[in-house]
Amino acid sequence: MSFIRTVVPLSVWAAVALAAPAAEPEATPHPMVTAAPVLPRDFKPDTYVKSLIDGLGSDVSSYVASGVPQFFQDFPTGDKVKKSLGIDDDGLKAVPTSVLNLPSYANWTDEGWNLRVHGNVYKLPNASQDKIDELANVFLIGTEMKKLAPNEQDQARNVTRSIYVVQQAHENVTVHFENDVSVEPDASGGVINAKGGAQNITLPYETTVEGDFDTFVKLKNTTGANGGHMLAGNATKSIQSLNMYVDGTMSGNATAYLVPPTGFTIISDIDDILRITKIYVPKEGLLNSFARPFTPWMNMPEIYANWSASIPDFHFHYLTTTPEQVTRNYMDFIYKTYPLGSFDTRPLNFSDVSATLQIRRFLLDKIFQTFPQRKFILMGDTTNSDVMKAYPAMAKDYPGQVQCIFLRNTTATDDTDLFPYDTSGFEGLDQKQYMFFNVADELKNLDIVGGNCYNPSVKQNVTFGFQGRGFGNSAPKQSLMTSYALSFVVLASVFNMML
Ligand SMILES: *[C@@H]1O[C@H](CO)[C@@H](O)[C@H](O)[C@H]1NC(C)=O
Ligand SMILES: *[C@@H]1O[C@H](CO)[C@@H](O)[C@H](O)[C@H]1NC(C)=O
Ligand SMILES: *[C@@H]1O[C@H](CO)[C@@H](O)[C@H](O)[C@H]1NC(C)=O
Ligand SMILES: *[C@@H]1O[C@H](CO)[C@@H](O)[C@H](O)[C@H]1NC(C)=O
Ligand SMILES: *[C@@H]1O[C@H](CO)[C@@H](O)[C@H](O)[C@H]1NC(C)=O
Ligand SMILES: *[C@@H]1O[C@H](CO)[C@@H](O)[C@H](O)[C@H]1NC(C)=O
Ligand SMILES: *[C@@H]1O[C@H](CO)[C@@H](O)[C@H](O)[C@H]1NC(C)=O
Ligand SMILES: *[C@@H]1O[C@H](CO)[C@@H](O)[C@H](O)[C@H]1NC(C)=O
Ligand SMILES: *[C@@H]1O[C@H](CO)[C@@H](O)[C@H](O)[C@H]1NC(C)=O
Ligand SMILES: *[C@@H]1O[C@H](CO)[C@@H](O)[C@H](O)[C@H]1NC(C)=O
Ligand SMILES: *[C@@H]1O[C@H](CO)[C@@H](O)[C@H](O)[C@H]1NC(C)=O
Ligand SMILES: *[C@@H]1O[C@H](CO)[C@@H](O)[C@H](O)[C@H]1NC(C)=O
């Protein structure tokens, strides 16, 4: 199915006027709400739903229309941050530089290990708590900082501080590598400590205007303690790890995973599959992303721990399109709850909506092309239209490289999920290659290594078209649609108030 971008008229103010009669129309979007929605050309939502979309306007309607419900959009950067915090360049000079260094993967080449190094250089201004609380209130919907529980306030302050950072352009980044990683048995898919490889590397490019760096570097085969060395990629099946430290800061520590050419890699999304986000209920999604401590979804930690222990040398790669600014919270949660592994997040230059919709495919292409002989297990859920499009497309575009696609059917366990999703990409794929599942237990006892990824006893109904409650063939439940519509009106009126 081909897609076109359709900008729904900005008539949100009609809806806002109902909820908040004094509202003045303003075109600036809420910082966490996606701008223009994407509608498929032959998409025919029910009349009721269509009027709902039109009535909500471009700022909020994309939650419904694109199925890419992104709360975290259009975060302030650079001068906007300085202005919001009331700081100038002189004030920033005294602030130490921080580095977000994402755990990364290396492939084996004729010239040795080739490691991706990616992240962001920034400064974290020391804003007062009052200022942070004031800024945090902007992100909250239907509540405010002083009404939150203390642990929620802490979380909201943390996220707000993480968002109000000033990215540092044109910086050189030097990374120190050390082979002293402590590896927990079975926690990380058979990862072993490299026996050599300590070295310092300055990246070949300065950071981009957004403070980002993302490049591959060649690791030298240096000798470690007791004459040890890194193993060649074609001499081992194990994943070796090295510690990375960025020069001049304590904030840029990460792990590098040296991943052999063959074997299995799982690429896992995080929201609504590894943690409860409820991205499909905007108000809940915002609270779960912004104020509540992250909580695992069902017994996914047990499933992943088991896969880590039972699938030989399983490489875990977490790929979320959440923006870089909030990545630390995601990493912190993942590494406490799930097996260790490399990480991808949305770089800052992918911030407009069309780029947002391409970022997942861009990052998937990068890892598939880095490991042309590995087999991939792709994990996600039905509420991300980019997942629904990209995952089956990877199976077609990289024949033989996709072992399994697992998609949590969020509709099955949550009545409040009204998002439409498109299963047409799965037409023509072997049923053994994919499964739409309802609860985490349905992932037990599958033969992933043998390529039997579908459990016939699991109830799934794939029509190769638009599916979902309130869209496509099933009639919307009026009461649910009404509560859904109300949550948008709340959203619209709140962001109007803050303008
Ligand atoms: C392992 O890889 C290196 C570098 O690509 C190559 O020189 C060597 O011949 C390979 N060894 C085997 C056993 O394939
Ligand atoms: C940050 O600001 C607070 C006052 O808002 C001050 O007490 C504290 O010393 C400052 N910290 C640093 C590291 O500058
Ligand atoms: C927010 O919390 C994360 C995870 O605990 C932590 O790594 C990060 O440093 C915190 N960020 C700020 C700005 O305090
Ligand atoms: C970064 O390193 C390059 C090469 O050493 C040098 O030419 C450039 O001036 C450096 N940039 C900064 C901002 O220090
Ligand atoms: C890396 O640089 C640090 C100083 O920045 C130095 O102490 C260390 O010995 C260097 N390591 C190697 C392996 O060259
Ligand atoms: C490094 O060199 C040692 C000794 O020559 C060799 O055994 C080992 O395979 C090499 N490792 C890599 C990663 O090239
Ligand atoms: C980063 O690593 C350095 C060197 O081992 C250590 O001193 C520092 O505490 C680490 N920082 C964090 C945030 O783990
Ligand atoms: C973003 O930057 C990366 C390099 O860091 C580049 O490969 C990519 O094409 C850029 N994407 C966009 C949308 O500008
Ligand atoms: C290693 O990864 C790089 C970067 O993605 C890719 O260009 C190259 O083809 C890969 N090499 C091999 C041998 O797979
Ligand atoms: C984990 O594996 C064991 C044995 O391999 C099995 O008995 C158990 O049911 C598995 N648990 C899950 C959650 O898959
Ligand atoms: C998802 O679950 C819902 C509710 O059980 C069901 O109607 C729908 O057909 C399922 N979708 C798929 C793709 O299996
Ligand atoms: C599967 O879903 C379609 C479309 O929602 C529906 O018409 C059909 O009755 C469903 N089939 C089963 C067996 O549930």
Short description:
With 499 residues, the chain is an alpha/beta fold. It contains 13 helices and 20 strands. The strands form four sheets. Strands 3, 4, 5, 6, 7, 8, 9, 10, 11 and 12 form a ten-stranded mixed sheet that branches. It has a six-stranded parallel sheet with strand order 15-14-13-16-17-19, covered by helices on one side.
**Radius of gyration, Cα only, in angstroms?**
23 Å
The profile of the biggest β sheet is:
10 strands, mixed
Share in helix: 25-40%
- Judged by helices, strands and strand pairing, the structural class is alpha/beta
> Into how many domains do the coordinates divide?
2
Q: What ions, cofactors and ligands are bound?
A: 2-acetamido-2-deoxy-beta-D-glucopyranose
Q: Quick one: overall form?
A: globular
Task: Report the span from N to C terminus.
Answer: 38 Å
Overall mean pLDDT: 80
- Helix count, DSSP H or I runs of 4 or more residues: 13
As a percent range, the share of strand residues is 15-25%
Total beta strand runs: 20
Q: Detail the poorly predicted runs.
A: 1-70, 471-499
Report on the structure:
By secondary structure, the protein is of the alpha/beta class. The chain folds into two domains: 2-33 and 77-258, no CATH class; 264-312 and 374-498, no CATH class. 30% of the residues lie in helices and 21% in strands. The protein has helices at 12-19, 47-65, 78-85, 89-93, 129-139, 150-163, 282-290, 300-310, 327-337, 353-370, 385-397, 410-413, 478-498, and strands at 3-5, 38-40, 97-102, 104-109, 112-123, 166-167, 174-178, 191-193, 199-202, 212-218, 239-246, 254-258, 264-268, 315-323, 342-346, 375-381, 402-408, 421-422, 434-437, 466-467. The strands form four sheets. Strands 3, 4, 5, 6, 7, 8, 9, 10, 11 and 12 form a ten-stranded mixed sheet that branches. A six-stranded parallel sheet has the order 15-14-13-16-17-19, covered by helices on one side. Strands 1-2 form a two-stranded antiparallel sheet. Strand 11 and strand 12 (254-258) form a beta hairpin. Helix 1 (12-19) packs across helix 2. The longest helix has 21 residues, at 478-498. It is globular, with a radius of gyration of 23 Å. 46% of the residues are buried. Residues 1-70 and 471-499 have low confidence and may be disordered. It binds 2-acetamido-2-deoxy-beta-D-glucopyranose (12 copies). One 2-acetamido-2-deoxy-beta-D-glucopyranose binds next to loops. One of its GO terms (cellular component) is actin cortical patch. Residues 1-19 form the signal peptide.
